[in-house]
Amino acid sequence: MGAVALLRLSGADAFAIAERVFRGRPAAKWEPRRQHFGRIVASDGCVVDEVLLTGFPAPASFTGEDVVEIACHGGIIVTKRILEVLLEAGAESAGPGEFSERAFLNGKMDLTRAEAIMDLISAQTDLAMKAAGEQLSGRLGDEIERIRLDIIGLLAHLEAYIDFPEEDIDPDTSSELQARAAEVLAKVETLLATADQGRILREGIRTVICGAPNAGKSSLLNCLLGFNRAIVNEAAGTTRDTIEELINLRGIPLRLVDTAGLREGLEAVEREGIERSRAQIAGAELVLLVIDSGAGADTLEKTSLPGSAKIVRILNKSDLPRHPDWAGEEGFAVSCLDEASVDALRDHLYDTITAGTTLGSGNLVSINVRHQHCLSRARGDLEKAIAMLAEGVSPEFVAMDLRAALDAVGDVVGRTDIEEILGEIFSQFCIGK
């Protein structure tokens, strides 16, 4: 339900189908990218709605095909009825992502930009939205394209030397080729280093809040969320099951999971909750170990936690006198009654998460899992090519690995074009002149 809904037609028959149901200015007089007022009329002659229609002739459209956009009133029933009228007039329902797929197939965008559309739609924080916007603008695609062109240049030089010896092409020395290949490898490594950053922005960080009963875990969850999500009570064992909520930590999504207090459960239900807590801790990326700094140390707080997550020890209830067991112990002091200390904890968590990443630097170019797989293949092929150059292996074998690296990088943006190599060879060396 909304004020306005938008229906989009794309394909060779888009204008013809729209004209069958639109009563207003005829299609022959539709001015490109200009709205035209009219009515959508069903096959029985009934007027469905008053609309604004905009035509985008190919190739100047999102998909590269003829596109018609119909802006109608945003009620669920009226939108559904107009969709039915269009289908009756000869249109077919689009599949998931089909408009973006057609845009890619028609050369309107590369795969990285197509993937960025979904990232933009599903972004949960401003930082994730900004990163998706930069990828949609082509920043990642441009980085990949520069790497491709570098590999094409290397490959073209090698293959020209191999295939056209009569042209007296002066080959680069092995050390020069190694240096050029190493520069390309460094660019690939730089992009691979952003994989964790991309995953964090897209999926968030699974953060488990754990500790002994009555340590203040649920209170801390409520403070970080800014509203009372979890029940807080002095009775031990109040939290029996896990509670999960998402917060925006300065642009980074944190999936906070509040867990049952870790102790030897007195009954079956509480024991089940504790087992679930241990399972959550084992699968966490970040663990907030909450400790009641005014109480004596529990044996569970002194033992190692399951899993390999980064652990942030929080000495809660800092407004109360600290128990001698925690004198001199490291941990971030927090009081859920003091908003300033909770804000300081947020800053501490942000610094902990962004350490070793470029999330806080403004550089938001980042790759996803598919990109990581492709670039990892390219890295391996480039490393083999460099090793063979160092060993003086025949250029034919080096060219094979460079070609494999080119294919792997091309898979990121959906481009693998043999003709480009030939074009580079003939333009660079003027062969056959």
The geometry reads as flat
Share of β-strand residues: 15-25%
Radius of gyration from the alpha-carbon trace, in angstroms: 30 Å
CATH class of the largest domain: Alpha Beta
Q: Give the total of beta strands.
A: 11
Mean pLDDT: 82
The helix/strand order is: EHEEEEHHHHHHHEHEEHEHEEHHHH
Q: Provide the low-confidence segments as ranges.
A: 235-240, 428-433
User: Could you say what the CATH architecture of the largest domain is?
Assistant: 3-Layer(aba) Sandwich
Q: What characterizes the major β-sheet?
A: 6 strands, mixed
Approximate helicity band: 40-55%
How many domain units?
Answer: 3
What name does the CATH topology of the largest domain carry? Rossmann fold
Can you count the helices?
A: 15
Structural class: alpha/beta
Query: First CA to last CA: what distance?
Result: 66 Å
CATH superfamily of the largest domain: P-loop containing nucleotide triphosphate hydrolases
Secondary-structure topology with pairs:
Blueprint: E1 4-10, H1 14-21, E2 22-24, E3 35-41, E4 47-56, E5 67-73, H2 76-88, H3 98-105, H4 111-122, H5 126-136, H6 139-163, H7 174-192, H8 195-203, E6 205-211, H9 217-225, E7 243-249, E8 252-258, H10 268-282, E9 286-292, H11 299-302, E10 310-316, E11 332-333, H12 339-354, H13 369-391, H14 395-413, H15 418-429
Helix pairs in contact: 4-5, 6-7, 6-14, 6-15, 7-13, 13-14
